[in-house]
Amino acid sequence: MKPVTRRATLAGLGIAVPALVTLSACSGGKKPAGGGGSPSSLSVWALTGAKQDTYQGSFDAWDKANPDDPFSVEFFANDSYKEKIRTSIGSGNAPTLIFNWAGGTLEDYVGNESVVDLTGKVDDILSHSIESIAKVGEVDGKQYGVPNNDTQPVVLYYSTELFEEHGVTPPTTWAELMTAVEAFVAADITPIALAGQSVWPELMYIQYLTDRIGGEGVFEKILTGEADAWSDPAITSALESIVQLVDAGAFGSSFGSVAADAGADAALVHTGQAAMLLQGSWVYGTFKQDAPDFVAGDKLGFLNFPAADGGAGDPANVVGNPANFWSVSADADPEVQELAIKYLNEFNLNEDMVDSFLGMGAIPAVKDLEDKLPDLDDGKFLSFAYDMVINAPHFQLSWDQALPAAPAQELLTNLSQIFLGEKKPADFVSAMNATLDS
């Protein structure tokens, strides 16, 4: 899937962000840290977009309670942040709190001794975090990151109006999905909207299909670098299933020119041109913003990805982005590290932050929300997505986040060629196995 850097700023409302914005904290009165963090004072960088006000409010609350130790806060657009944080960590000039996506990124930080081992130091925040998500912040059994925002499972959205009009059953199995594809192709409706120009939405298919067919262990072998791990039969079957969808006309003939960042894939659904869309939970905000009547009129349905016929994977498993994470810079002075840990335990994902996320239709990565969600404006969707996450035996991090940068880019390139019919599954497997040797 597309790197979370780009998704995170769009997660709540699908709002586009400028190239670079820096803002100082309102309440602390402390000058921003400029090119990097100060080891002797609290500093933090976060992302612009829908969640910015929530983060700012949390740091303001800390500053009010700790006026002698305020946060210096800067906000960056996602791509700018990604480049800047990499440079600052490499130079030992990172902010105290490091916003990250876990996976390969966090492993690199740990390997370079850039972040603090938080094991046993953040039990308060972990006690009310969703356990399966909190574990994503572990490296080699030790805690180096804690969740700081919403969980983002990948959902199969569908137009209830089109399904009812054409007498199609919302698919819960692969056979039902292919039946739905055939019915909508016959009706001259694109069965599934796909933003192929963006490429990263295509990852959702290989992830879910591999999991449904072969189970969660298939990708675990890839992560551990097992020789020829991409040769697992489940990978080939997943690729063949993708080819089956393409050949059946599931994505129409123009998916290669559709971009996700502008919400063009969601627009195909709410304008009646496409019947389904496999996308992250963040796209619910896009539907709500761009087509409020479509959402309010119960025309938007949602499902987990269909089960594979005879597959070994649990159909309740989920793929996507468990959350974003805070880590603590190892370059900060010890007393500043302790202040940051205090913030994580007392202010991060507290009741105020949870309420703020829920208000924007986002699902905080915390436990025991079941009774709170149904009464909210977006309660139906929030309850559905929250149940997906809570009941998932396994929540698989987006492959392009779990893998190191170079193999992740190879994955995107080769997968795009599969969807475009430019590469055979066997060639994909060979190309990706080569990344295990590099």
TrEMBL record:
SUPFAM superfamilies, per the entry: Periplasmic binding protein-like II
Annotated signal peptide: none
Coiled-coil intervals, chain numbering: none
Listed InterPro entries: Bact_solute-bd_prot1 (IPR050490), SBP (IPR006059)
Name the UniProt record assigns to this protein: Extracellular solute-binding protein
Species of provenance: Brachybacterium tyrofermentans
